[in-house]
Design goal:
The structure holds four protein chains of four kinds.
Chain A: E1 3-6, E2 10-13, E3 18-22, H1 36-44, E4 52-58, E5 66-72, E6 78-82
Antiparallel strand pairs in A: 1-2, 3-4, 4-5, 5-6
Chain B: E1 23-27, E2 31-38, H1 41-50, E3 61-64, E4 67-73, E5 76-82, H2 86-97, E6 102-106, E7 111-117, H3 121-126, E8 144-148, E9 151-157, E10 163-168, H4 172-183, E11 188-191
Parallel strand pairs in B: 1-11
Antiparallel strand pairs in B: 1-7, 2-5, 2-6, 3-4, 4-5, 7-10, 8-9, 9-10
Chain C: H1 6-13, E1 32-38, H2 42-55, E2 60-63, E3 79-80, H3 87-107, E4 118-122, H4 125-140, E5 146-149, H5 150-156, E6 172-176, E7 180-181, H6 184-197, E8 201-203, E9 208-214, E10 217-223, E11 226-235, H7 241-248, E12 255-264, E13 274-277, E14 282-286, E15 292-298, H8 310-323, E16 331-342, E17 349-352, E18 358-362, H9 372-385, H10 399-402, H11 409-412
Parallel strand pairs in C: 1-2, 1-11, 2-8, 4-13, 11-18
Antiparallel strand pairs in C: 3-7, 4-6, 5-6, 9-10, 10-11, 12-15, 12-16, 13-14, 14-15, 17-18
The chains are: A mainly beta, B alpha+beta, C alpha/beta, D alpha+beta.
The complex binds flavin-adenine dinucleotide, nicotinamide-adenine-dinucleotide (NAD), flavin mononucleotide and zinc ion.
Flavin mononucleotide sits between chains C (74-76, 78, 184, 263, 287, 289, 291, 293, 306, 333-334, 336) and D (545, 549, 575-576, 578).
């Protein structure tokens, strides 16, 4: 069970949160004109990296904010959390 | 007015187990609750109407006189007051916020408020609440939303030890049963 | 390959045997192969076996970064069934189930396929309707499937909680008599031994760390044991598929999640069938050694750690106690996790990739053990003939662009 | 029976408190403070079990959780516990224990024929046989299953309770041996919040078992002082009988505490699971002794050396009258010395090492003990109890001498208990001198101390523990300094290096895994057959897969493999340590989330009325909803039919409180809804409501509901009951992360409003007298929304209809829900008002052709498929729009929602039935669709159904065929899905 530092509420246990998957993949520009492949890319294709992962979480049982977490998918270590609109922190090397 | 029915009126059965009781459980029935959402200047404007600034520090609560504001999120507060004060409180908010974008919603009936008090209130709550409840980190002046068992709840420590648990109305029966069951170990008394 | 038999066992026992051979060799990698399969799980090994057996393609290597069968093949709850909702799924899983039925003899290796029936419990009317939909479809697809009443279900599984005063009383369920369980390790080892005997090189401790291309075509792989040329390559790496895809320069609609399982201490038989419950989320069977083998839900987050979090196991335990009150005083012996490759529609991907000569088989997620022989069969055919096998065609990656997904979430409830 | 093997004095048992217990039906005596094992041993009972595969007689082998043999059943009836370790069961008065897996008796077990067949049952034999003929495996399997298994499950539900608690601390110390106590003291003195958990009954660890001294006093005095000091610290919590099971992410540690047994009745709880969140963890879990590999090493009377001395020192039990110690290390000499000091005759110490120069052998010789260097046990004698060992020089194994003894105390050195370290991701390294894996670098938040870290000398355990406590406290944010623990080397420092692990092989059975009956030969066979990876060898032989998980045997197995493969032990590697450290009950894991508290049941404000009025409930998500209100003797179907009739012909009342409700407010609200729904909301006038369809980004219908505009920038949005939570999260997601241009505030008001739906031609007559709202069609038309009072309660009324008849959805603050309901029932009485449940609701809406998300949709259905294409705006963008343009979203393969009428009007098509174009088809048959909803319609007086059929709207009027499961193939006609009032003539009443 992860310990997630909500950028608003502080460290809370994972069961208070809802996971939102990979962060920062964006709809294609002019998405209504995007090709089926580009659209499928947005809808379904994911980096799913073995290593550092930028991901989305919502503090559903707490402040109900969505925010971002940089977490390692092997060690589960969390290197940083940030709010919507914050500059992206670097991934640890 | 018609008959009012608090969330637990049909669950609550006084006369719980006898013996030494380390915890007392009670239903606060109706606690006036207004959910307030807004940002920027609206927040300042509310301060003027309430007579105190809304708490902006996470998980804290500020109150004076008739109302208390509990931080719920960066743009969200729960204002609590006596049940019969809420219309007036809401009006004050609406007046103060006229012209701002905000949402002040009476949610009094949305939540039941259960109170557990007594020397063993903390270990009873700790059976299902993942928060660090030690007085070091969570005492009067704090408030937090978290889980109790499988219910979400807003937890407000009270003077003299114990907590008010604000829980969605439909979960109140579950939480009540849960607390009675959790408290059995310490002896639990139902206060009516 | 020397055949296994009771007679051979006896001869060896009384000292007349000439000793047991290696089940498979541990050769050094050759510089080049016609086909290289990346991933020595059941699916990869089965693919190699059928390439050699059905298509005569024998200059084949299976590269495994660890030990064969050490991925999900070696850590799953071994439920084998074919009662899937959609025609495309039913077809491929049923093909696989038919292969299971002859697999022990085919491989001359007892994979202990135990057709002990499988009951998917329904606890609500909605679940009964879903079961009805699936069973009707299964029947028309030629799959043995039955709707069971509450009484039938309780009689068949005496240790089930019979109370009606519980949150999810048993209302009935669906059953597939030909479904069951198999010995996970034996499947990997049996295919390995079979493939090895047909000339396939099984190379363990050999991790693929790079893809070599000429233009749009794959020509070889970099591995921790050196470069290996290949005319064709197939990635059959389950939880690690995205990692391999990124080496080859494309992305997949796959996310890797931990999925946990646990076993109880061995006890005398109490459960003679496989039970699955979507509502309380548990699936369980009792192994031949006596442990209850149980599966849980996935952790929500992406992970490549072969472990999950505790609340998932606690939920599984309370679901077990709710379903079978007598287990409460039994003890959990061991828990573990695997990394499952989850597709958005809970269906696999089999077929070509954007790289010429590179094939992929992944996305079986929480339920691919049962597909092992069938998946190997169709992928071998696809590789050998450079076009999708008819049963594999609907599972191509193109479905994500066209939107023709094969959504097995709804009716499969617990997708195992 | 008298306790013949109880020493006259000594031990930590309470000789003033005798206890009586039963084993296999015989009564025995023991003392408070005994374990079942120590009490059995005090009575001379060694043989307590039969082995798993060969049913060989087995005795008590260890002292605690490492025990591989002594699995027994305790308790009776519903309270039995199978596979309890005799070594960890605290003795209590009246305890009942029985041996397992034997028939007819423990001494004479027929299952032991398997032992004769053991050459056949070599590693993996079952993979090589039982393959035929035909289906014969079924029979073989049946027999194997009956033979396998160990204990038996209870037959009744568990009478006990299990608790869960969360706990937080700065420093969690696991293990209260010298290292753990020192760590806890150091961290506690620094002011850290410390939790010290230890699975034993009392603190002290090995100090309880061995006659150590610290600074000249018995070590147990030091333990008492340390414990007293810890107990004086406010921020220290000490839990005995508490086992750390597993370490999970970010300092999360699961521990299980077992209750102090009480002689009679039940404890308040049996086990309590602690969910500890620790900033830092100090693992001071000690080390577990391992035996040696030798012929006949499973004879009852054979025991770990440290256990033998612990039984003497701690429990005052002489495990045997005459002992032989067999070892490869110095520590075992302590056993010999302690046994001798207790008055047990030590017939000899056989040491595999040739060169015995250390202090301990010298001490033993000084005390007159017979030490045989370079000697081994090469065989054992006796059947159910050891009678003698065969000893021989290592270099000349055939030169045997028989040493009579009834106790063989074996020591092959110690394995640090690395389980928790490994759970946390620690990577162990091999220390050849110790022949053991020791911790390498520390994982985050964790320090390993004491013998768990491979530091076996007591002085090092104390100083290392204190150091770990200081470091942990510092990392947790406290300033701490190394405490001035004055430590003298307690004893002549024993050399911790070990000699060989194996005695010469003379062809007898040499067990590696005692529980699973895995022998050295099995492991060598595995290696020979190519199962070279340690993980393969484990799985092929099942080494370490039994209830003890190889706590004592695994390292020996690795050494055998190392030899067989010609690889060094570190190259062979270990298998993976997995939680739990020691088996844990289902009950403890489940905690109180069983029975009534398994899951919450959400109840509406009117729930008590439903209950009192005989409602039949059904779970819908977490809610319970009234399905129907059958009268006494009435079936569900009859009740639903009656309820439908009432709602069609006069008036019905339905509790719709469970619908999700979200208050949407802010300057961007209208635009927000336009983006969320596939249809348009910005054009909706205040005071009006509109039905909306919400799609996922994949274009599939996700949720539906009616939304009313309360003001220019204020909406009341409703969702399905099941979709409420996920819709809320989804809406907040877009608002918070993507549409920062919109200022919109969402407030969930699901629970604020109780909703009663009044439906039927008489609805107006019922509501009219109660309200100040003008109900005339002109003033309050269909799809309008009004605020007013109903029964003197402030209310929001929606004129929407899910039945097709005149309906009012009346929302009132939840506290008034019951009063509203009662007022409506009262007002409706003259009109025969009838409460109806979800079953009738479904029939009513199906008659009208309305969809239910989850019935008519399953995540693969678009608005066009439902025939709602007209709702889909082409003028604006909305979530899911792009997906609707994909290739697979159009064309004749799409399924359309249609109606289906069986040719036989009396027949109700089963829901879920599949549809064929032709009456007979070969299998697999091409299915063109399925029945999504189907009912006997009281209104149409025939069976009606909704179905999703490929290209269905183009097939109206066609006949299709439904092969039923165990019945005929039924013909049905495709029709419009709207059966009732297609002209919408009835919705105004
Ligand atoms: C707990 C659990 C329970 C399950 N229960 C069931 C069930 O009851 N029924 C069912 O049908 N399915 C079940 N499954 C799913 C099933 O286990 C898998 O779908 C199936 O085993 C996948 O087989 P595979 O051969 O594709 O993958 P794996 O067995 O995982 O094999 C993939 C192999 O690829 C190797 N590899 C990865 N990357 C590389 C690289 N770069 N180079 C070389 N080798 C590489 C891996 O080491 C691994 O051995 C379960 C899964 C889990 C985890
Ligand atoms: N000379 C040798 O070869 C040798 C070898 C090993 C140990 N020893 C002696 O043994 C002692 C070791 O001291 P120590 O403090 O390292 O260990 P210890 O064995 O004295 O104490 C460890 C304690 O931790 C408990 N424990 C283990 N795992 C646990 C878990 N998961 N949850 C809860 N409790 C758990 C054990 O029951 C025990 O009480 C020293 O006196 C040392 O000299 C000597
Ligand atoms: C069907 C099945 C049955 C198992 N039975 C046992 C068992 O009886 N004892 C045991 O220790 N482990 C058992 N395991 C678990 C394995 O020991 C091991 O945990 C699993 O293969 C995952 O590997 P890992 O833990 O080495 O990562 C079983 C695994 C499976 C898949
Ligand atoms: Zn938060």
């Amino acid at each position: 069970m992860l310990l997630i530092p909500c950028p608003y509420c502080g460290e809370r246990t994972e069961s208070e949160f809802r996971y939102g998957g990979e962060a920062h993949f964006r709809r294609p520009e002019n998405h209504l004109e995007a090709t089926d492949e580009a659209w499928a890319d947005y809808l379904f294709m994911r980096k799913n990296p073995k290593g550092w992962h930028r991901e989305r979480w919502m503090h559903i049982a707490g402040c109900k904010r969505w925010f971002y977490v940089v977490r390692h998918t092997v060690t589960h270590r969390i290197s940083s959390v940030y709010k919507v609109g914050d500059p992206l922190p670097d991934l640890p090397s | 007015m018609t008959d009012e029915c608090a969330p637990l009126d049909n669950v609550l059965r006084p006369g719980a187990p006898s013996g030494p009781s380390g915890v007392a459980l009670s239903d606060r029935r109706f606690v006036g609750q207004i959910n307030l959402r807004g940002r920027g200047e609206a927040v300042t404007a509310v301060g003027a109407a309430l007579g105190y600034a809304l708490p902006v520090e996470a998980n804290t609560t500020v109150g004076s006189g008739v109302s208390r504001a509990c931080w719920l999120g960066p743009d969200e507060w729960l204002l609590i007051c006596e049940d019969d004060q809420r219309a007036e409180l809401k009006k004050r908010l609406d007046d103060a916020l006229a012209g701002h974008a905000y949402a002040a919603t009476d949610v009094t009936d949305s939540r039941a408020v259960l109170r557990i008090a007594g020397a063993c209130a903390r270990p009873v709550l700790a059976k299902g609440c993942p928060l660090d409840l030690s007085a070091r980190s969570f005492g009067v002046g704090h408030v937090a939303q978290s889980l109790v068992g499988r219910a979400q709840a807003m937890i407000l420590p009270i003077e003299g030890g114990g907590y008010d648990l604000f829980v969605a109305r439909s979960f109140a029966g579950y939480l009540w049963t849960w607390l009675l069951d959790a408290g059995a170990e310490y002896g639990i008394r139902v206060q009516t | 390959m020397k055949r296994y038999s009771f007679v051979q066992l006896l001869r060896n026992a009384i000292g007349l045997g000439d000793g047991w051979q290696q089940a498979w060799r541990s050769p050094e990698p050759k510089p080049s192969y016609d086909v290289v399969i990346v991933g020595g799980g059941g699916h990869g090994l089965a693919t190699a076996y059928y390439l050699a057996k059905n298509h005569g393609v024998r200059n084949v290597a299976v590269l495994e970064k660890g030990w064969i069968g050490g991925g999900n093949t070696g850590r799953n709850t071994t439920v084998v069934r074919s009662n899937y909702l959609w025609d495309e799924s039913a077809a491929i899983y049923e093909h696989s189930l038919k292969l299971w039925e002859g697999l022990t003899q085919e491989l001359n290796f007892n994979v202990m396929f135990s057709q002990r029936n499988l009951v998917m419990l329904a606890h609500t009317e909605h679940e009964m309707i879903e079961a009805s939909r699936r069973v009707h479809a299964n029947r028309l697809n030629g799959i043995d499937a039955e709707i069971w009443s509450r009484e039938q279900t309780l009689a068949f599984i005496p240790i089930l909680n019979k109370s009606m005063n519980i949150r999810y009383p048993v209302m009935g369920g669906s059953a597939q008599p030909r479904a069951g369980i198999a010995r996970h390790d034996a499947v990997a080892w049996g295919f390995a031994r079979g493939a090895d005997a047909l000339g396939v090189d099984i190379i363990q401790n050999c991790e693929v760390i790079g893809v070599r291309r000429e233009g749009s075509r794959i020509v070889g792989l970099d591995t921790t044991r050196g470069a290996i040329d290949a005319k064709k390559v197939a990635f059959v790496a389950a939880g690690h598929s995205s990692v391999l895809a990124s080496l080859a320069g494309f992305r997949l609609p796959i996310e890797s999640h931990p999925l946990q399982a646990m076993v109880s201490e061995p006890i005398k038989p109490v459960l003679d069938t496989v039970v699955m419950s979507g509502a309380v989320h548990a699936y369980v069977s009792q192994s031949d050694k006596g442990e209850l083998v149980m599966g849980a839900g996935i952790d929500a987050f992406n992970s490549y750690a072969q472990r999950g979090s505790l609340p998932i196991l606690e939920d599984l335990a309370s679901a077990m106690v709710e379903l079978f009150p007598i287990v409460s005083r039994l003890k959990i012996l061991r828990s573990w996790g695997g990394i499952v490759d989850v597709c958005p529609d809970a269906s696999p991907i089999i077929g070509r990739t954007p790289v010429d000569g590179l094939f992929i088989n992944c996305g079986w997620g929480t339920g691919g053990f049962k597909a092992t022989p069938g998946s190997g069969w169709v992928l071998a055919d696809t590789i050998a003939n450079d076009r999708p096998h008819a049963l594999a065609a609907p599972f191509s990656m193109e479905r994500f662009a066209s939107g023709r997904l094969i959504d097995e979430h709804g009716a499969a409830a617990v997708a195992h | 029976m008298t306790q013949d093997f109880r020493l006259a004095k000594g031990g930590r048992i309470d000789r003033e408190k005798p206890l009586r217990f039963l084993f296999d039906g015989h009564a025995y005596d023991g003392f408070a403070g005994d374990t079942l094992a120590s009490a059995l041993l005090a009575n001379g009972i060694h043989l307590v079990a039969r082995s798993f595969k060969y049913h060989r007689p087995r005795g008590i082998y260890g002292l605690g959780v490492e025990e591989p043999n002594a699995l027994v059943e305790t308790g009776i009836g519903a309270a039995i516990e199978p596979n309890a370790r005799a070594t960890t069961v605290e003795l209590s008065d009246g305890l009942i224990a029985n041996s397992q897996n034997r028939w007819p008796s423990l001494r004479f077990d027929l299952g032991a024929v398997a032992d004769l067949a053991s050459p056949l049952l070599s590693a993996g034999f079952y993979y090589k046989t039982f393959m035929g003929p035909g289906n014969a495996w079924k029979l073989y399997e049946w027999m194997i299953r009956r033979a396998a298994g160990v204990g038996r499950a209870p037959e009744q539900p568990d009478p006990d309770r299990y608790e869960h608690s969360f706990a937080h601390c700065d420093v969690l110390v696991v293990g209260a041996g010298p290292a753990g106590l020192a760590a806890a003291l150091a961290a506690g003195r620094a002011g850290a919040r410390v939790m010290l958990v230890d699975e034993q009954v009392e603190p002290g660890g090995q100090l309880l078992n061995t006659a150590y001294t610290i600074n000249g006093r018995p070590a147990t005095d030091w333990v008492a002082d340390a414990t007293a000091e810890l107990d004086r610290m406010d921020e220290v919590r000490r839990l005995q009988r508490t086992l750390a099971l597993g370490v999970y992410d970010h300092g999360y540690v699961a521990c299980v505490e077992r209750a102090v047994p009480v002689p009679e009745g039940r404890t308040r709880w049996r086990e309590r699971m602690w969910h500890v969140r620790a900033k830092e963890i100090v693992v001071a879990s000690g080390a577990i002794e391992r035996p040696l590999i030798h012929d006949g090493n499973d004879r009852p009377g054979t025991m770990l050396a440290s256990a033998a001395r612990a039984y003497a020192n701690r429990y005052g039990v002489a495990v045997g009258k005459r002992a032989v110690v067999f070892a490869n290390n110095d520590d075992a000499y302590r056993t010999a010395l302690d046994l001798a000091d207790s008055g047990i005759e030590v017939a000899g110490i056989l040491d595999l090492r040739h060169d015995l120069t250390g202090a301990m052998p010298a001490l033993a010789r000084e005390k007159g003990l017979r030490v045989l260097a370079g000697h081994a046990v090469v065989g054992t004698r006796g059947r159910t109890r050891l009678k003698a060992v065969e000893a021989a020089p290592v270099d000349d194994p055939s030169n045997r001498q028989i040493i009579e003894c009834d106790l063989l105390a074996v020591s092959g050195g110690w394995n640090p208990a690395l389980h928790l370290y490994a759970h946390a991701g620690g990577k162990a390294s091999y220390d050849a001198a110790l022949a053991a894996f020791v911790p390498g670098s520390s994982p985050e938040r964790m320090t390993v101390a004491g013998s768990a870290a491979g530091e076996f000398a007591l002085a090092h355990c104390l100083s290392g523990g204190a150091r770990a406590g200081v470091e942990a406290a510092k990392r947790a944010g406290f300033s701490a300094t190394q405490p001035a623990l004055v430590l003298e080397a307690p004893e002549p420092n024993a050399d911790t290096r070990v000699g060989p692990l194996s005695a010469p092989n003379r062809g007898g059975k040499r067990f590696i895994d005692l529980h699973n009956d895995v022998t050295e030969k099995d492991l060598r066979l595995a290696a020979q057959e190519g199962y070279r990876s340690v993980e393969h060898a484990k799985r092929y032989t099942t080494m370490g897969m039994g209830p003890d998980q190889g706590k004592t045997g695994n390292i020996l197995g690795l050494n055998v493999l190392s030899d067989a493969l010609g690889q060094a032990v570190p190259q062979v590697g270990t298998t993976t340590f997995r939680p739990p450290y020691h088996p844990v009950s289902f009950g403890a894991l489940a905690g109180r989330e069983v029975h009534d508290l398994f899951l919450p049941t959400r109840k509406t404000p009117m729930d008590s009325w439903h209950e009192e009025n005989g409602a039949l409930f059904e779970p819908v998500g977490q809610w319970r909803r009234a399905k129907a209100y059958p009268k006494p003797g009435e079936s569900l179907h009859a009740a639903a039919e009656r309820e439908v009739k009432a709602a069609r012909e006069s008036v019905g009342l339905f509790d719709a409180s469970t619908l999700g409700k979200i208050d949407v407010r802010g300057p961007g609200a209208a635009q927000f809804l336009d983006r969320i729904y596939c249809n348009t909301f910005s054009t909706l006038k205040p005071g009006n409501a509109r039905y909306g369809l919400m799609l996922g980004e994949d274009g599939m219908v996700k949720d539906d509901g009616v939304t009313a505009r309360l003001g220019p920038d204020h909406f009341h949005l409703t969702t399905t009951t099941g979709g409420a939570a996920s819709v809320y999260v989804w809406l907040e997601d877009w608002l918070q992360t993507e549409w920062l241009d919109l200022e919109v505030y969402l407030t969930s008001v699901t629970e604020q409003w109780a909703v009663a739906t009044l439906s039927g031609p008489k609805a107006r007559q019922v509501l009219g007298p109660l309200t100040d709202v003008d109900l005339s069609t002109a003033a309050f038309p269909f799809m309008a929304f009004r605020e007013g009072r109903v029964a003197n309660i402030p209310a929001r009324i929606f004129r929407v209809s899910f039945s097709g008849d005149l309906s009012y959805e009346i929302n009132v603050p939840a506290r008034h829900g019951l009063a509203l309901w009662q007022a409506l029932m009262e007002s409706g009485r003259p009109h025969g008002i009838t409460p109806y449940g979800t079953e009738a609701l479904h029939i009513l809406r199906a008659e009208k052709g309305y969809i239910v998300v989850g019935h008519e949709t399953d995540g693969t259905i678009t608005p066009h498929d439902l025939g709602y294409g007209g709702m889909v705006s082409t003028k604006k963008d909305f979530l899911g729009r792009r997906s609707l343009g994909r290739a697979g979203m159009t064309g004749p393969d799409r399924k359309h929602l249609v109606g289906l009428l069986s040719k036989d009007p009396a027949r109700v098509l089963p829901m879920g039935a599949q549809i064929l174009e032709r009456p007979t088809e070969a299998r697999p048959a091409p299915m063109i669709g399925h029945v999504s909803s189907s009912y006997m319609s009281p209104t149409m007086k025939r069976g009606i159904a909704m179905a999703l059929i490929k290209n269905g709207r183009e097939r109206l009027g066609q006949t299709v065929y439904l092969p039923l499961l165990d019945g005929p193939t039924v013909a049905a006609e495709i029709v419009s899905p709207v059966f009732y009032d297609p002209e919408n003539a009835r919705r105004d009443g």
